[in-house]
Amino acid sequence: MIRVLLVDDQPLIRSGFRALLDLEDDITVVAEAADGSEALALARQYLPDIALIDIQMPVLDGIQATRQIAADPALAEVHVVILTNYGLDEYVFHALRAGAAGFLVKDILPEDFLHAVRVAARGDALLAPSITRRLINRYVSQPLSTDNATKLNELTGREREAVTLVAQGMSNEEIADRMVISPLTAKTHINRAMTKLHARDRAQLVVLAYESGLVAPRNL
Question: pTM of this prediction?
């Protein structure tokens, strides 16, 4: 059963998402919050698999809430998915850097929304290649991180290759096909890279890969 925490300051938005999620046999909404501070308390109380968090909220916004959830070892298994009104806005990249596993636009089709919740629950990043390109092209002018580039030296050649493909938006199956290995081996390379780089999830690998210069927009 996938346990979901809904966080949005608009009751109508929350009730709409809840009505949709409650129809699914494998998903349950364990709690709702109207601001980031309340979300943190409920996350610690219920330990949900997914926290669907709106960006713009009173008291504590979605980015700060995401950052605090990501920094709390007790919430390591909580995957934050950011809810936004736009396909790409100024907050999304910062939310990913704060520890979000991905983001969803609020006008998403119901079937796509449910699929996304299940994807996030598996620990996969909600970053399609087209979204990755738009994010990175927008923020490519930012200076590269020397610290992150140094961290990459800890990876093996195959782990670096796997991280590069993750940053291009590929699934484990697609990475396995490209590297001519089994999906299980691909997952192992990715998990080892996440451990060495102290990345919370695949979305963090994407951010790190671009910030370090391992992958550049021209490679996509």
Answer: 0.70
